[in-house]
């Protein structure tokens, strides 16, 4: 008697019924299915937004009618309901996206660079619609088949319906930003209470759907397996961290115990949401440093380019002098870093593809620091390459709280090979143990040391490029601003990959993408900024902190001690925020005696403007633009006022209030009119899903120091930005920090400063660390190398 399968699928007449032939035909069918899916995907991506929406609505109505006719079963009822929901959300979302897209061009840098947060949000929503379109087509084609996986398809449809609902809420938020912001501005500028209201509404939205089945749907498909691996590792490590099975030490075993999270996307998404919302900055610091454990670091080095020189150096905290650019006969003193912890060495890593003159000198060898058994020792070689005319000074990213040059070494080795220039990567001290301005001081000191001792590094120093990613990009800008303030040589150009230029807590359309970004969730961004700004405070009722273990308690006590020292020195820290009202004398030159304080930027002499003496605390971008346009740069003073400029206490504003707390806040803010509130007034009947996790611990750190131009260079006055060298920015279209790059490039362009902005599609923040992952990341990394090459080898004038 024939089996059921043989009865339904008989072997064709005249065809051999061998297993080999059956496997071959199965393989051919699978190949045809893949080709058909790829063709359908290309067709969908070529369709405009309205066509995609109409096609999705038509398919949803067809599937809804089919499953409604299948009887009273629970599965059929849920499938019918999910397609009804898809139809409703798609029809409600399309008009809002159309309005955003119709004005998005007003926020672009130029016609050749169509990129800003509004465009990115529309693109992300469209990706979700396209995925639902593909799934609806699949269901319509296979719903009668006995091989139709009802439960799997229902779970995926429900997950993407939730994601579409949340994206619709984000679209309404973006629409309110568009109506509230000043014309042409991407960042909201206004009352902090309004921002707190907006962020309260925004961050309490449910996020777990974006970390489960929908994880990374907006990125290129080659990235998604990596993101899934990272998410599984993160939730597994989070469990170990919470139970104190690893404390603050990282072991590889903690990353491979998440089997249940791998097979249950909903559980993974819920746990991911809990972790990113509630665990502290120490968890993120530990997790991001996983790449530096011996096993993973060795694997990364095996896959990277082989270089002759890769060694860690320790620069002693010694004062030295450098010539002023305006008058090389006058010397200015460069003091070692002093903030918070006093003078201390600065670690740097020298990477060179070839062994060049000076790199094996006794003077450089005396600065070498052993890295243990994994150290790459420099050996004398009979032949040396001549010194390169170029030098790259690199500053790594990591949210100001994590990673070192070792984490970024794989792609830096490739850079050294492709550029043919030595690279000096700076290992600055990390927050929260060493908050602002310690990292800036160390990077500036190392940069000046590199300029002065470039011969030891194998370079003549004819062309110097500052390069960095994320937080490192921020430090590249601020180091250059500080070099200009001192009057010493500024770099010949800056290459910043996805930099953070606005650290002040505010809202922008690209910031909305942090709701679904697994690498840059908003709560984590807030924790990193808090730590860098010195706002890391003691948690009084968090049971998770009790599980830190001895090592964790020591680190926490150290951080608290440093915090007390910072509060004690708040009077001179606050002076960072104000510019001197005294101009330097036209004939005066900066004195060359050592500076006694670490915040020399406060001595930038700026003329008092009509906007008032409190120059930076209350200014908007528009005010700063007006302020700088009428100023003429003078020689900056490098001395500090002996008097304190007033005490400023940072305040932490809770943006995740419970309903009873929210009512108290609303009473305190009655003077705000309804039209001034930023949070979205959703259409009647639309209710996005709210987070089920208690998020009251996430705070918005509000302090004047966040407006310091050496912390948020986007807020620097025009006169400071005009001192920057040519700037090349490489940003990601789907990065929550995209608007930082766009607005910074627009400000530089408005000042006629040389700036380029290139935006890569479908890649996440931090793609440089993923350069070896796929073709798209390799191409993006190559674009960064091309931008650096423009600085090191600028094109000559046209003949």
UniProtKB/TrEMBL annotation:
Subunit structure: Monomer and homodimer. Interacts with CAVIN1 in the adipocyte cytoplasm. Interacts with PLIN5.
Enzyme Commission designation: 3.1.1.23, 3.1.1.79
Active site: 470
Localisation per UniProt entry: Cell membrane; Cytoplasm, Cytosol; Lipid droplet; Membrane, Caveola
GO terms, biological process: cholesterol metabolic process; triglyceride catabolic process
Main location per the UniProt record: membrane
Pathway it works in: Lipid metabolism; Glycerolipid metabolism; triacylglycerol degradation
Keyword GTP-binding: no
Family membership noted in the UniProt record: Belongs to the 'GDXG' lipolytic enzyme family.
Protein name: Hormone-sensitive lipase
Reaction catalysis annotation: 2-(5Z,8Z,11Z,14Z-eicosatetraenoyl)-glycerol + H2O = glycerol + (5Z,8Z,11Z,14Z)-eicosatetraenoate + H(+); 1,2-di-(9Z-octadecenoyl)-sn-glycerol + H2O = (9Z-octadecenoyl)-glycerol + (9Z)-octadecenoate + H(+); a triacylglycerol + H2O = a diacylglycerol + a fatty acid + H(+); 1-(9Z-octadecenoyl)-glycerol + H2O = glycerol + (9Z)-octadecenoate + H(+)
Name of a matching Pfam family: Abhydrolase_3
Keywords tagged on the record: Cell membrane, Cholesterol metabolism, Cytoplasm, Hydrolase, Lipid degradation, Lipid droplet, Lipid metabolism, Membrane, Phosphoprotein, Steroid metabolism, Sterol metabolism
